[in-house]
Design a protein that fits this description.
mainly alpha; 6 helices; 198 residues
Length: 198
């Protein structure tokens, strides 16, 4: 019964994943078409306004959101907030002549609130990282100290990956030089210290 349930669950997830990909492709194509239409309008009228540029930024943010979702399967909440800030700024710029003072203050206060929400989310993600960020997709948050160090006694921060190819060139060079210095400093088994010889 459990095996059948697992197969059914996998089939449902696979179907949902296919529909997600189709929806993301449709969103990407529609965004590209909208951006192409906007660029064509700017070329036809031979004028470029700040509202047009902000609209293109909106399209780019949507495409970036689609790309991140396709790559990781997750949607960062900060991207829609960025899009909301750009959209509110564009609305304020385009409708400034028709808005009253209170309406402009309300739009500006909304932008400030969204920016504070972005800062809070950013602080929370750095202060309290989720377990998903500790996987292979992310660089380790806690670096491992190099016990060898350099001549000044400092240590290098290395990645959690023990593979030498994952280390930076200067870090690998310092590790090699540290091993050589340690070999030169080690006394031979039959060699007496200088103080004992005296």
């Amino acid at each position: 019964m459990s095996v059948q349930h697992t197969k059914t669950t996998h089939a449902i997830r696979r179907t949902i994943g296919v529909f997600e990909i189709i929806g993301l492709v449709i969103i990407a194509l529609a965004t590209i078409y909208a951006g192409f239409t906007e660029v064509t309008h700017m070329v036809r009228t031979a004028t470029v306004t700040l509202g047009d540029l902000l609209l293109l930024f909106l399209y780019l943010e949507v495409l970036a959101m689609v790309a991140i979702y396709l790559d990781s399967g997750k949607l960062p909440i900060r991207l829609p907030l960025y899009i909301a800030i750009i959209a509110m700024a564009r609305y304020l710029i385009l409708e400034m002549k028709e808005l009253s003072e209170w309406e402009m203050l309300a739009v500006g206060f909304t932008i400030i609130l969204i920016a504070l929400a972005v800062l809070a989310l950013r602080y929370g993600s750095l202060k309290f990282p989720s377990q998903d960020r500790l996987g292979p997709r992310w660089i380790a948050a806690q670096p491992i100290k190099n016990p060898i160090g350099d001549q000044d006694g400092r240590t290098d921060d290395l990645l959690e990956n023990d593979d030498d190819s994952a280390r930076k060139p200067h870090q690998q060079q310092r590790i090699t030089e540290g091993h050589r210095r340690n070999r030169r400093r080690r006394p031979k088994p039959n060699q007496q210290p200088d103080s004992a010889a005296e």
